UniProtKB/TrEMBL annotation:
<dbReference type="InterPro" id="IPR036291">
    <property type="entry name" value="NAD(P)-bd_dom_sf"/>
</dbReference>
<feature type="domain" description="Ketoreductase">
    <location>
        <begin position="2"/>
        <end position="182"/>
    </location>
</feature>
<dbReference type="GO" id="GO:0016491">
    <property type="term" value="F:oxidoreductase activity"/>
</dbReference>
<protein>
    <submittedName>
        <fullName>SDR family oxidoreductase</fullName>
    </submittedName>
</protein>
<dbReference type="InterPro" id="IPR002347">
    <property type="entry name" value="SDR_fam"/>
</dbReference>
<keyword id="KW-0560">Oxidoreductase</keyword>
<dbReference type="Pfam" id="PF00106">
    <property type="entry name" value="adh_short"/>
</dbReference>
<dbReference type="InterPro" id="IPR057326">
    <property type="entry name" value="KR_dom"/>
</dbReference>
<comment type="similarity">
    <text>Belongs to the short-chain dehydrogenases/reductases (SDR) family.</text>
</comment>
Amino acid sequence: MTYTLITGASGGIGLALARQLAAQKHNLILVARNAEKLTQLSQQLQADYGVRVEGIAANLARPEAAQHIYRETQQHHWDVDLLVNNAGVGSGGEFVSLSLQSELELLQLNTASLVALTHLFLQPMQERRSGTIINVASMTAFMPVPYMATYAASKAFVRSFTEALTQECQPHGIDVLLFAPGLTKTNFNEAAGINNEKAAGLNSDYTTAPAQTPEEVAEELIHAWRAKKPVHIAGRRNRLGARLLACLPNAMIARYVARTYQQKLAHH
Ligand SMILES: NC(=O)c1ccc[n+]([C@@H]2O[C@H](COP(=O)([O-])OP(=O)(O)OC[C@H]3O[C@@H](n4cnc5c(N)ncnc54)[C@H](OP(=O)(O)O)[C@@H]3O)[C@@H](O)[C@H]2O)c1
């Protein structure tokens, strides 16, 4: 039986995606840390849509988590034909003042675990000569972001890694796609410890800056998957923004972002 595996499926974009794919009759494997939430959600989606939904509780900020997830799927003979590496965490504020431990865990979750899951699930996909991997980046993948330096760098990694693998995997009949959301109304800021003040400085305050809903973003992801778009930026406004950013030198963008943050925080 084939499944779609979604990491970070218990909330935000991952949860919206799980609901929409279940409604479209896809069997799901949901990954997140909170086991209780996963059990509830699996039962609810199974009852609502009559599909098979499995949960694997795992902390992808730990290096051994990807292997654990892969082993579980192998043991139960759950064939993953679509892997969505969506789980991710942010961080915001002056780099030197942030906890080194949590910056390193961010890198493990946003980059190393994503690489590990991609590596593990690519092998059976190659044998079957079919499958899709979608890596969720961010608009920050396209620019350096002072006061969000590690997060933006992790997403730039995801972008570069994914765009390279797209080409490597094409001859094997496997699609590796990059999906980049912009500001989306989820629990992202709270999970990252980004308070209202910092969010305002980073232009990432959902209550004032234009943001998409997770449902809109999930819908675009599904559309990009079906259209096999190698790179898709969610939201028309974000796509325009990305085009503009591509014309500007990185140093200029970084200077502007840093000044905005410094000025906004000085006024608080
Ligand atoms: N929201 C935005 O504005 C925005 C913009 C651009 C890109 N993105 C990207 O979109 C993706 C989804 O973000 P979101 O906004 O939906 O975030 P969210 O609302 O905070 O949801 C994050 C999901 O990931 C899970 N998760 C967090 N840490 C984990 C860990 N260590 N191991 C396993 N699962 C973990 C959470 O569940 P548990 O807490 O139960 O583990 C939850 O299901 C991320 O990659 C993010 O970088 C978001």
